[in-house]
Amino acid sequence: MDAFVGVLAAFVGIVLLVVGVVFITFFRLWIRAWLSGAQVGLFSLVGMSLRKVNPGVIVDSRIMAVKAGLFISTNDLETHYLAGGKVLRVVQALIAATKANIDLSFKQATAIDLAGRDILDAVQTSVNPKVIDCPDPNKGPSTVAAVAMDGIQLKAKARVTVRTNIRGLVGGATEDTIIARVGEGIVTTIGSSENHKKVLENPDNISRVVLQRGLDAGTAFEILSIDVADVDVGENIGAQLQIKQAEADKQIAQARAEERRAMAYAREQEMRAQVVEMRARVVEAEAEVPRAMAEAFRQGNLGIMDYYRMKNVEADTSMRDSISKLERSESEDTDQGSS
Question: pTM for the complete prediction?
């Protein structure tokens, strides 16, 4: 009997100890919620701890919601916490949206938060629009370069004022898409201008044309204005292209001329080779004459006297040629002296 009483007393002591620890641990949270009018049961706090939910976050969120006139159940807050959401940011965003008369439900807010978007920043941007630099100087060149029809390059940069489109946050494109679309619009507008002077005279034409293109479609933002911050004159791209084209044409012409020269040189060498070949044939033919004469001597078709008469004729012909050349030379010298 004494042993039973001892076990019972030990059990009661353990229970009282556990209750005391729970009471000490969660009493401050429970009294805070009770005094704020956001009742959260003591056993609910214990259950949160067992479910690995931070009771302090849930109580603080519940108190903020109640003080702002919003009714959000503890179960909904726990569910969003267990899903990996930022409970405090969601409640703060709902309070800011309520104060700014923005239609935002708890379901929408949690969906946006779980999608990875900062819901509080989105609500703040919806109330207080922010300015985006186009292009982003932290991710590349500080200006958008485009070439007008006259070949002159212009470098422009713009500032885009946007506010958050709450309904388009889930699945909507980010700031990078806005920057890319605005940059594309700037390039198209400058490229369609007849000359760069018109762009410099009225840079607001860029803003007007780009704004009319509806670049915020499918994004998480609404474009309020596009302001051209600066337009600078760059290089004469048209002249550079013409110079490169002329240089390329020159090289092509030189290559063709070199090809023709090489062909002409080859033809000349070929003709020289033919001349040498023909001379060789003449020499070969002349070499046959003595052979023929010798054969004629052997066969008796040519006599010694005939041979000498032929030699005399050749000598006489040679002498006459020499005299003719000498007279012609003296006649030319006389004509030059008289002139």
Answer: 0.58
Q: How confident is the model at residue 333 (pLDDT cuts 50, 70, 90)?
A: low
pLDDT, tens digit (0-9, with 9 covering 90-100), for 41-57: 777 777 777 788 888 88
Domain boundaries, the chain: 2-127, 130-237
Instruction: Report the alpha-carbon distance of residue 218 to residue 171 in Å, rounded.
Output: 8
Distance of CA 88 to the CA centre of its chain: 40
Tell me: the pLDDT tens digits for 271-300?
988 888 888 888 888 788 777 777 777 777
Report the C-alpha gap between 159 and 190 in whole angstroms: 17
Describe the crossing of helices 55-67 and 74-82 by its angle, rounded to 10 degrees.
130
CATH 3.40.50.11720 correct for 130-237: no
Q: Are 228 and 204 in contact (CB under 8 A)?
A: yes
Asked if pLDDT for residue 32 goes beyond 80, the answer is: no
54 CB-near residues (< 8 Å, 6+ apart) = 48, 81
Tokens read off for 214: 């509806």
As a three-state string, the secondary structure of the chain is CHHHHHHHHHHHHHHHHHHHHHHHHHHHHHHHHHHHCCCCCHHHHHHHHHCCCCHHHHHHHHHHHHHCCCCCCHHHHHHHHHCCCCHHHHHHHHHHHHHCCCCCCHHHHHHHHHCCCCHHHHHHHHHCCEEEEECCHHHCCCCEEEECCCCEEEEEEEEEEEEECHHHCCCCECHHHHHHHHHHHHHHHHHCCCCHHHHHHCCHHHHHHHHCCCCCCCECEEEEEEEEEEEEEEEEHHHHHHHHHHHHHHHHHHHHHHHHHHHHHHHHHHHHHHHHHHHHHHHHHHHHHHHHHHHHHHHCCCCHHHHHHHHHHHHHHHHHHHHHHHHHHHHHHHHHHHC
Q: How far apart are CA 222 and CA 58, in angstroms?
A: 34
